[in-house]
Amino acid sequence: MLLVLCVDLDDDLGRKTGIPTPVIGADDVTEAAVALATADPEDSDVNVLFQGVNVHDELAAAGEAVEVAAVTGIDGSDVKANRAVGKEVDRVLAELSTGEEVSAVVITDGAQDESVLPVIRSRMPIDGMRRVVVRQAQDLESLYYTIKQVLADPETRGTILVPLGVLLLIYPLVVVANLFDVAGAAVLGILSGIVGLYSLFRGLGLEDTVDGAAATVRNVLYTGRVTLVTYVVALALLVVGGVQGLDTVEAVRDTGAGATTGILVAAFVHGLVQWLAVAGVTSSLGQITDEYLAGRFRWRYLNAPFYVLSIAVVLYAVSGFFLPAAPGVTPLGLPDLALALAAGTLIGVLSTLAFAVAESQLPSAEPA
């Protein structure tokens, strides 16, 4: 048996006519449609009821075993409305208990009513669905419902309305700025920059990255990790080293000794590397301290500052070998370079061997 099911999710039929639902049978549905049309001629559910009767008559004329019914939800929450429709569908199926399998053709007037389709499908198969739309207002209700759903979603609302609000504020803010003799172009540039940064932020999906970074910083602050302090100190040392490297470049350039690109790079490294070494040792000591406090200390972790020192010695010597005498530059000869390379190698190798032996002979903390 086929059931033509007219769906009125917000219960316009019951609220405006007082007719109890569900309404079953072509004659009763026709009377309900006339009553609703009399109460509110502009209600689109009138068309749904008449369409249901029309489909019923067409199928009955073709010899199909068919019945028509109208079910309603409640005005307000979609979840409660869907549950109300489900209960009325159960009542309709109970009254149609003919022993035959019942399938449905659902008649609605837009996307909002179609949200109840899973509820109906859980009770019987759906052979078809027909949306009734007044020709003069085609897709109007669906568009309204779509916009309503978009604006009801917090994430989508923030993504769309925030940039739109800033854009709409640009003109009045520029006008106000001009009244106070503030450059309107500056205000326009600032607001456009804000919208641009926001769009890039959302487009690149940086929300999770920023949230994760903020959570990491909070965790570091709350747990009292030494690395927070040592990283800040290391960053300050790198800034100072960068400035020192630029000063060394200027000093080498002022000597007029053929400052090629390679020489300038060597000068920058020569001025930077001392500060870079101190920054590396500081940050590695902070990390070692945190590992020790967390009970994860290993003797081999002490290799880090020695490796940094070894690399710094090599870079300092190599860069100084290629530089002329200048303020802030320690020019090195070939014997000095060989000695520095040997020293850097020995520092790395000896530290590795020493801490490997220490780790094999002395106890270290077990992993947390």
From TrEMBL:
The chain crosses the membrane at residues 158-176, 182-201, 222-243, 263-285, 306-325, 337-358. The keyword Transmembrane helix applies. This is DUF373 family protein. PANTHER family: DUF373 FAMILY PROTEIN, HYPOTHETICAL MEMBRANE PROTEIN, CONSERVED, DUF373 FAMILY. InterPro entries: DUF373. It comes from Halorubrum aidingense JCM 13560. Keywords: Membrane, Transmembrane, Transmembrane helix. It comes from the Archaea. Pfam families: DUF373.
